[in-house]
Structures are given as C-alpha cells and as structure tokens.
Design a protein that fits this description.
Order of helices and strands: EEEEE
Distance between the termini: 38 Å
CATH superfamily: Nucleic acid-binding proteins
Shape: globular
Strand content: over 45%
Number of domains: 1
CATH class: Mainly Beta
Largest sheet: 5 strands, mixed, barrel
Helix content: under 10%
Number of helices: 0
CATH architecture: Beta Barrel
Radius of gyration: 14 Å
Number of strands: 5
Length: about 80
C-alpha cells in the first residue's frame, strides 16, 4: 500500500524541523450543491528547515514522529518570493 500524499502551502515555519501545511480540498455541499473550500492543516517534518512560509510543498504520510506529527515534507514544488 502506497503512502498518502498531499500538496499544500506552508503557513508556519516557526518550529524547529516542523512546518504547518494547509491543504485545501474542494467539496460540494450535500444539499445546496455549492462548491466549498475545506482547509486541513498538517504538521510535517522538515529535517533541514528548508521550507519557508508560502512555499508549495508535497507531503507524504509516515510513522508517528511526535504526538501531532505524522507527515514528512517529500518535495518543495515552488518557493515563495517573500
């Protein structure tokens, strides 16, 4: 079974070796049919502290690394120009 992967944007890089990644998914409202944007935030392991706020990254599911951290940064797709 392959590990789950998500693509999202780094919203916080204040922790050491950890980033918070916001992943947006678009879902249709069950009754009204309007498309809604749902945001899920994941804490991901960033070993070299390469990620900065605003970067677009791919994260991959892994074993539990801490109480809240179950993802690891697999790749930086694009970096922010801030």
């Amino acid at each position: 079974m392959a590990a789950k992967e998500r693509i999202g944007q780094v919203v916080s890089d204040k922790m050491d070796k950890t980033v918070v990644v916001a992943v947006e998914t678009r879902v249709q409202h069950p009754k009204y049919g309007k498309i809604m944007v749902r945001t899920q935030r994941y804490k991901a392991h960033d070993e070299e502290n390469n990620c900065k706020t605003g970067d677009r990254v791919k994260i991959s599911e892994t074993r539990p690394l801490s109480r809240t951290k179950r993802w690891v940064v697999a790749d930086i797709l694009s970096s922010s120009d801030i």
